User: What shape does this take?
Amino acid sequence: MSDVRILAIESSCDETAAAVVVNGRDMRSNVISSQIDLHTIYGGVVPELASRKHIEKINQVITQALQDAEMTLADIDVIGVTYGPGLVGALLVGVAEAKAISYAAKIPLVGVHHIEGHISANYIENRDLEPPFLCLVVSGGHTHLVKVSDYGKYEILGRTRDDAAGEAFDKVARAIGLGYPGGPKIEKASREGDPQAIDFPRAKVGDDVYDFSFSGLKSAVLNYLNGCSMKGIAVCQADVAASFQKAVTDVLVAHAERAIEEFGMERFAIAGGVASNGVIRQAMQEMCARHDVQFYRPSPILCTDNAAMIGAAAYYDFIAGKRSGLDLNAVPALKLGEA
Ligand code: KG4
Ligand code: ZN
Assistant: This one.
């Protein structure tokens, strides 16, 4: 089969991104325009501002992605675009852009599930990785433990009942005065702190052993902060950050380990923004080594939102025969497996 050159577009949250990926694995360019500075003063992503910024940036980002790949639209075989889940106004910018290019340049269109993209980020730097494998997707909006049975075939073993792991990082960071975005700031602060300093809870969720819950942990941090303020005790930001991060890590590792034991999988991957966390990566790596399981993790830049991962996922959808029409719409609450 001849090469499949994909131009991928991602705009589901606060990154405007475009990339060129060949045959799902060969990343020729990966351009990301982050809106972090724009949202920082509000302490989180403001959806309307995100949409407007996407409109402003998207053409520029696509032009750059093609230039970096030394290609023009004439070289592109497929347009891949995230159509859900995410912020509706943000998604719509990418979807409308992808449809316009597909129509004008007569290039087939493939709508991609954002989480499928995060999982597929692992294919880019690991040419040997093929399903079946287990994948823990930990991002700002999602915490899913997934069995990837085949390309495009996912079984969700567990998910969060309340906050996503990244959301917990963001909320705790705000509470201890570190600001947005929480994940990287907590990781940095934690380097000076003691992970054993405060014993925050490791939540168990009823009978669904693979489900997660992070709102209890978040409340425990808030209660601890309130308690300190009432007693007039100074809070050590670094200790809170390190102890919170340890509690999240322990829960993520325990769930992953249980799934590895139960399903006897030989490969385990992590994905999503939180998977860029060094402490979590290290703990997962050690756990996998104990079980003689091959561990995969994308480079940090491919963990947080990017379009290369969308290009990787679009390739496997495309060769499986999936095509989207010009009626493709943004689906903010798209479920994995419905894509
Ligand atoms: O995957 P992502 O870029 O966007 C979503 O699809 O949600 O993930 C963003 C999330 C944010 O909650 C951010 O705080 C978290 O990933 N994150 C981190 C780190 N870097 C980003 N969490 C922990 N440690 C990090 N180093
Ligand atoms: Zn994401």
User: Anything to note?
Assistant: The mean pLDDT is 96.
